[in-house]
Design brief:
Structural class: alpha/beta
Shape: globular
Helix content: 40-55%
Strand content: 5-15%
Largest sheet: 7 strands, mixed
CATH superfamily of the largest domain: Type I PLP-dependent aspartate aminotransferase-like (Major domain)
Radius of gyration: 21 Å
Number of domains: 2
Strand order of the largest sheet: 2-8-7-6-5-3-4
Distance between the termini: 28 Å
């Protein structure tokens, strides 16, 4: 099997699987229990939070565990907007965001907020100048993705942060960094962001675990209410197996971040080189991040290409997995024509991607092109 859909999800690494098993069978207590078993679980919770926080580049107290990146996005937007409601009701985001952000924006509009959705450039990134033009005195929240989940385009979040500071804006800055975490180096300080969403299953941890960085001193209204877990910020007994696995995945990947990114960047370039040689019509759609490659064979249907590759056990996608087969709103927002969008494929690399995977992909697409071209 040649799995190249790592932007949709990644396989769980051995370190994370072992950590989850230990948390389920050995250190299985409730971190809120005061007896010995509970205290051991609390130690595991604290050490896990410290490991993930180290990878993020923040203090453990600034990191709250969630169920996924979508919950982190929902919480950041819905509570972030309410946090600034007395100062204004204007929000800036873009047309290229993940649906977790887009649907949150729809809900905020129903609650009386005004949303400016900026168009991305031809790479899928959002220009800082576009934010500057849209910024108003009553802007209370800016939410822009760091690495676009479909094209890999990198938006200049530090530049947006600098703009907000220069303008003296009270707006909170949120970035969905789900596709950036442990793929490109960043920290809250380098980004200048108040809120950062991350997810475990994009970095070889299990599905069902994420986190939200909340800048120290910023008290957001809880999104999940109930008990006093997570220092009263998110109710619900902590999902310790997933949390421990998330920490283990971070511990395994963080020390190798630059090395893994460099390897994937070379692999991405090699794919482009080989495919451009074999397929003259090939188009590269945006990009910037080392692990995501969006390309198109205009005139060919992406579903047909995917089926051809799947028959060879090569797995890619056509856009975000959350779209469930729908046309990409990101590529549409970039101004691409229907023929290009309908022939688009997204290739997602990981630190486990090897030369055999690259060769299988390139040979598969070459053969698919030659086969379909003669029909």
């Amino acid at each position: 099997m040649h799995y190249l859909d790592n932007s949709a999800t990644t396989r769980v690494c051995p370190e994370a699987a072992e950590a989850a098993l230990q948390a389920m069978t050995v250190c299985f207590g409730n971190p809120s229990s005061t007896h010995t078993v509970g205290r051991e679980a609390k130690k595991l919770l604290d050490s896990s939070r410290a490991s993930v926080a180290k990878a993020v580049g923040c203090q453990p107290s600034e990191l709250v565990f969630t169920s996924c990146g979508s919950e982190s996005d929902n919480w950041a937007l819905l509570s972030g907007a309410e946090y600034g409601r007395r100062k204004g009701r204007h929000i800036i985001s873009s047309e290229a965001e993940h649906d977790a952000v887009r649907r949150s924006l729809d809900l905020l509009e129903e609650r009386g907020f005004e949303v400016t959705r900026l168009k991305p450039d031809r790479t899928g990134a959002v220009p800082v100048d576009a934010v500057r033009t849209a910024l108003r005195e009553d802007t209370v929240l800016v939410s822009l993705m760091l690495v676009n989940n479909e094209t890999g385009a990198i938006t200049d979040i530090p530049g947006v942060s600098a703009l907000l500071r220069e303008a003296g804006s009270p707006a909170l800055l949120h970035t969905d960094a789900v596709q950036a975490f442990l793929k490109i180096p960043f920290s809250p300080k380098s980004l200048g962001a108040d809120l950062i969403s991350i997810s475990g299953h994009k970095v070889h941890a299990p599905k069902g675990i994420g986190a939200l960085y909340i800048q120290g001193g910023l008290r957001l209204k809880p999104f999940v209410c109930g008990g006093g877990q997570e220092e009263g910020r998110r109710a619900g007994t902590e999902a310790m197996p997933a949390i421990a696995a998330f920490a283990a995945a971070c511990e395994a990947a963080f020390p190798m971040l630059y090395e893994n990114a460099g390897k994937m960047r070379l692999q991405r370039a090699e794919i482009i080189r080989r495919l451009q040689t074999d397929i003259p019509e090939l188009q590269i759609l945006g990009g910037g991040a080392p692990h995501i490659l969006s390309l198109s064979l205009p005139g060919w249907r992406s579903e047909v290409l995917m089926n051809y590759l799947e028959a060879r056990e090569v797995y890619v996608s056509k856009s975000s997995a959350c779209k469930k087969g729908g046309r990409s709103h990101v590529l549409s927002a970039m101004g691409l024509n229907a023929k290009t969008i309908d022939g688009a494929l997204r290739i997602g690399l990981s630190r486990y991607t090897d030369d055999d995977d690259i060769a299988a992909l390139c040979l598969g697409l070459r053969d698919a092109y030659r086969s379909l071209a003669h029909r």
